[in-house]
């Protein structure tokens, strides 16, 4: 599989990076076998070795199926909403951004009507607020105006 | 015999209405908090500790112990039904528990989890009653070389959890190791693998990675397969059948013993023992190819190990004052709030107190079973809710789970990134469990390795000159050979039965 070979190559790159970190840690060692450089060196070496094996030798064959275009858009939009939610949390605070993210997710994933979407999002944020903020006093981000 | 009479006295003290009420309340609250993603036993005890300070010492500690057990059980509920392991120890439960839920057998899986927790918790408490001082003393013989050898033994599990390609499993394991090294290095305190990004100095949080790889990627997979509800078809009986119980009982015992023995060792958390119990079950099974696809023993063994490890942890806590897990460290703080100093003198100075607590553990375990079996019917309805409603809720809970462990927005981002990675890992058949396993074991492996080499006389010979360490290394080698043989044999058997090459993944 071509993807396995690419995986092997990524393994080699991570291995090289790990070894470079081992070199960076080397001056801080206690002795050659004791220090923060040892494990990055060992792990890096093994990653390179296994990566090379993965590239050279024949690997299993299987078919990778990707969904149709509309589903790819749905999945990408869902991930986009999660990233947007992460950004919104910084500015709008937990309650408002969770409500907005909920609205978008219910709409995208469930394809519900506007009224249902608003109801589900409102119920969800109410339940989450009750449990996490009111009951457990979790320190969630407040919005930028406090 | 002396212990028995002490225990009976303990029961007399524990079986008062107020103490029973505290055990019930603790189990219930612990279960409810444990169900929430990201909130494992440690967070549950830490959050609820202030609430118990209004109680007397005995009631307070009975409640804390019950919260501890309840939170552990609660974690398995979301792991089985929603594929959200609230804590790392629940990851092996997901592997077979969630496929069972998808097949409409979430109820029996939850039932087996509750019964396993009860059986193994009881094994653990029996061990605590009869062998506490003796076992605590033996656990102290474990030094850095023995821990390193034990971690090596645990890492051999990767071979069994690699699915169709061992090389892929090993590469993923090494990737997990690299991820575990991000942050402050253990010897010199320098930062490693941070790319100069300050937030990485604190390292990556395990729960965020687990939530991303399991919960978020599971939702993406569910969307792709146009899932209507989590479970398909009729739910059927919500309780385990006699066949389920018969199939699971040996797994409960094995998991309970593995969890108990390893749970005595400081640093050997349920996260490690649950994986080892799962692996053992897969190895002894005549049909290992069922694992990862909904084998009920795959739920029983890790759940049993989880609970017995937690019970075993009370032995070094009470006898030596050593908390073996973060949750027990918080519990230790609870003991100290009440003016009790765990250690060798605790059994002499606070004898009646300790035995009341031990007796209440029996009661707490029984309460957990009694309370949770009727709740299964309610929990199981979660799998019938339309996926269009469930998926957004799972995603919002996943984000909260990622955030709550360290109150860090960075952890939320990590969860989302690993959600995407998990989706592609699944597509291209790169197993994620080895990554999680080495992420957990990596720091202990590195620390114990460095400490061992630094011990006099120095050098690698130390691992082979100490009997326990040598025995563990030999066991690791033997297990590796046996695993490779079993994998080859299973592949051949499956191929002979089906007539073509079969993927025995997970």
- How far apart are the first and last residues' alpha carbons of chain B, in Å? 46 Å
The overall number of domains of chain B is 1
- Strand segment count of chain B: 2
Mean pLDDT, all residues of chain B: 83
User: Please, how many helices of chain A?
Assistant: 4
Task: Give structural notes.
The complex is a heterodimer of chains A (146) and B (506). Chain A is mainly α. Chain A has helices spanning 2-25, 38-56, 69-110, 114-135. The longest helix of chain A is centred in the middle third of the chain and has 42 residues, at 69-110. Chain B is mainly α. Chain B contains 22 helices and 2 strands. In chain B, strands 1-2 form a two-stranded antiparallel sheet. In chain B, a hairpin with a 6-residue loop joins strand 1 and strand 2. At the A-B interface, helix 1, helix 2, helix 3 and helix 4 of A face helix 9, helix 10, helix 18, helix 19 and helix 20 of B.
Give the tags.
heterodimer; A: 146 residues; mainly alpha; 2 domains; 73% helix; 0% strand; flat; B: 506 residues; two-stranded antiparallel ribbon; 22 helices; globular
